[in-house]
UniProtKB/TrEMBL annotation:
Pfam families: Hydrolase_4
InterPro entries for this protein: AB_hydrolase_fold, AB_hydrolase_sf, Hydrolase_4
GO biological process: acylglycerol catabolic process
The Serine aminopeptidase S33 domain, residue ranges: 27-116
GO CC annotations on file: membrane
MF-aspect GO terms: monoacylglycerol lipase activity
Taxonomic lineage: Bacteria, Bacillati, Actinomycetota, Acidimicrobiia, Acidimicrobiales
Record protein name field: Short chain dehydrogenase
Length: 287
């Protein structure tokens, strides 16, 4: 793994990691985008598995997240997709490109695919959405105020890191221990051992407010890429059916169609089942 930096148009520095292909190359590249208040490290296991399949893989700490700068700057879906355009130009892949995002990162990936549709030099061959970006999120709540109140993250800044570590052990029980380290990477720890979010709650809420206005069906209709949809199913028949149907409707909007691959599991499917997610991404690149 090689850690790189890219400078955005407004001077903000983003950090990304490159996983070079091991063995015969598929002549394909993939950029993996994390969700809101997450970080690139949750994608590292998938990136390594793809590199073993011959895929050059990149994970990105998006603006305001992880090791990247940009706290307090504009960081909605449009700004993040513009950042991704700068990243793609900086790495200038010569092979077919896939952009895959999870949760909020899925919306960024979808918008990027729409923006890049008429730019062959940066247009992705595949746009992948992992449990996100399937439907207009703002319509799932009675009002905007209800959504912002319900989805506001807990105020946990200043807690001892031992408390967070214990929470992560419960949250990610039976998962790869590497995921515990990835979850911790979303925080910085001061000299007193107290943990603070790398993405401030105020910035989280700015991104969330922007996400509530996002209309994915508009962008899906603009795509020239194949669309890969991976919903996480929770075992609730009604909810799972509704989510799968929403993903199917979005897929029907995409001119070049693609694949719908539901998986029973956690919202963080990429962290819970990296082997399965890597396999599905590889299959879409190989198609």
């Amino acid at each position: 793994m090689e850690t790189l930096e890219a400078r955005m148009r407004d001077g903000v520095r983003l950090v990304l990691d490159r996983f070079d292909p091991v063995g015969p190359s598929l002549t394909a590249s993939v950029i993996l985008l994390h969700g809101l208040s997450s970080n690139a490290q949750l994608w590292w296991p998938v990136a390594r598995l793809l590199s073993e399949q011959g895929v050059c893989s990149y994970t990105v700490d998006q603006r305001g997240h992880g090791r990247s700068g940009g706290a307090g700057s504009p960081m909605g879906i449009a700004e993040s997709a513009d950042d991704l355009l700068t990243v793609v130009k900086s790495i200038s892949p010569s092979e077919p490109l896939a952009v895959v995002g999870q949760s909020w990162g899925a919306s960024v990936a979808l918008h990027y695919g729409a923006v890049a549709a008429d730019k062959p030099e940066v247009r992705p061959y595949v746009v992948g959405l992992v449990d996100g970006g399937f439907q207009a999120m703002g319509r799932a709540f009675p009002s905007r105020e209800d959504a912002l109140k319900e989805l506001r993250p807990a105020e946990i800044d200043g807690r001892p890191i031992e408390e967070l570590d214990a929470f992560f052990r419960r949250r990610y029980e039976d998962w790869d221990p590497e995921i515990l380290l990835a979850a911790r990477a979303g925080f910085h720890v001061d000299s007193a051992g107290l943990a603070y979010r790398r993405l401030a709650v105020s910035d989280h809420m700015v991104i969330l407010s922007d996400l509530l206005d996002y209309e994915p069906h508009i962008d899906a209709g603009r795509l020239r890429s194949k669309l890969l949809l991976i919903p996480a199913l929770a075992g609730s028949p009604e909810a799972d059916e509704a989510k799968t149907e929403a993903a199917g409707r979005l897929l029907a909007e995409a001119p070049n169609q693609g694949w719908l691959r539901p998986i029973m599991g956690d919202h963080d499917l990429h962290a819970q089942y990296p082997e399965r997610i890597a396999e599905i991404i590889f299959e879409s690149l190989s198609a």
